[in-house]
Amino acid sequence: MENHEVLLTREFNAPRELVFKVWTEAEHFCKWWGPKGFTLEIHKMDARPGGGFLGCQKSPDGMSIWGKFVYLEVNAPEKLVFIQSFSDEEGNIVRAPFNPNWPLEIINILTFAEEDGKTTVTFSGGPVNASEEEMAAFEAMKPMVKQGFDGTFEQLDQYLASQQ
Description:
By secondary structure, this protein is α+β, with helices and mostly antiparallel strands. The chain has a single domain, classed as 2-Layer Sandwich (Alpha-D-Glucose-1,6-Bisphosphate, Chain A, domain 4), CATH 3.30.530.20. It is 27% helix and 38% strand. The protein contains 3 helices and 7 strands; from the N terminus they run βααββββββα. It has a 7-stranded antiparallel sheet. Pfam families: AHSA1.
């Protein structure tokens, strides 16, 4: 996965416990996760190893996109690891609506480090069990993936500011 991963680091002006909490509790997560302008309706969020997330993002024009996570590691407040997929409303994995070759599973690994009341989140992620076509699709979209997470992290930054 190393050469096919996205790596981002972002510092937030908030304590690590709070930053971890807003990643793992539905009432917070739904307020900032996803592309700008989208809303997130959470149907299930059980942030523990083996637990899952199921949610529906709605675009400003009303398009619904379902997604799911399977949590592999939840080590509060230091580390969070989950597999992310597009899904239907029952949580069955489906192909991405924007690219038939998008990987079915993406691993996301987040670490949270606090210094002087600020938290640095290091995010890395990439395809799991992917075909060559899926790896190529992910590689081609990496700049857009990074741009999307930059926007999501901007929303997280604003949300954290409102929580202190």
